[in-house]
Amino acid sequence: MPDIHHDASGLSREIQPMPEDVLAELKADGLLAAYRERPAYQQNDYLAWIGRAKHPPTRGKRIEQMLTELRVGGVYMGMDHPASRKN
Length: 87
Prior knowledge:
- The protein is mainly alpha-helical.
- The chain has helices spanning 20-28, 32-37, 40-51, 56-72; strands at 75-76, 79-80.
- A two-stranded antiparallel sheet has the order 1-2.
- The chain is globular, with a radius of gyration of 13 Å.
- The N and C termini lie far apart (43 Å).
- 11% of the residues are buried.
């Protein structure tokens, strides 16, 4: 059974660590602040989704989708997310 952590955000699911390659991509694209502005559950969900990819091309596509959604705003996992819309 995975270890379940509780953080200040109130998440009760397993907290995903930030992979070095994802962090490097966020920094390279200037999107780390946009990532950190998202709710904790979204940050965690993105990392879990990327981490579940079984093949490197799939992982790359998932990272790119996350980066695109952070760049354009208003989208989370392919769904409308009004709270993150850019003005």
